[in-house]
Design a protein that fits this description.
Blueprint lengths: L1 H22 L8 H27 L4 H23 L5 H28 L1
Length: about 120
């Protein structure tokens, strides 16, 4: 649980930072392609790292998708809130929470598989 909370906090900071960079009108000069790339690659890397660490620490496969889902859910929810603050629809909170939790569980399992293969 601690690993999921820690990674969720890191993921939240990344989501808020990317939302500010991507949605602030004064920062519209920033190219969109690197922002989209960072918005995809950063969460994927963080969630795989979360699954890797959770597998190394717990040794139980059931803990890994739960840890990844917790981290992804936190990051997705905070990212959705950042989008709502920027004037986007409130549906972003629910979508962020669900998409984050599901992708967190799947990517966490990928990180656990990586940890298992490296042993």
């Amino acid at each position: 649980m601690r690993e999921g909370l820690r990674s969720g906090a890191i993921l939240s900071l990344c989501a808020v930072g990317l939302a500010v960079l991507g949605l602030t009108p004064a920062l519209s000069w920033i190219p969109e392609v690197p922002l989209i790339g960072a918005a995809i690659l950063l969460p994927v890397a963080i969630l795989i790292w979360t699954g890797f660490r959770a597998a190394k620490r717990s040794g139980r496969l059931l803990a890994v998708p739960l840890t990844g889902a917790l981290a992804g859910g936190i990051g997705g929810c905070i990212g959705g809130i950042a989008y709502v603050i920027a004037g986007k629809p409130a549906l972003n909170i629910a979508v962020g929470l669900l998409a984050g939790a599901l992708s967190g569980a799947v990517l966490g399992l990928a990180g656990a598989e990586l940890a298992r293969r490296l042993r």
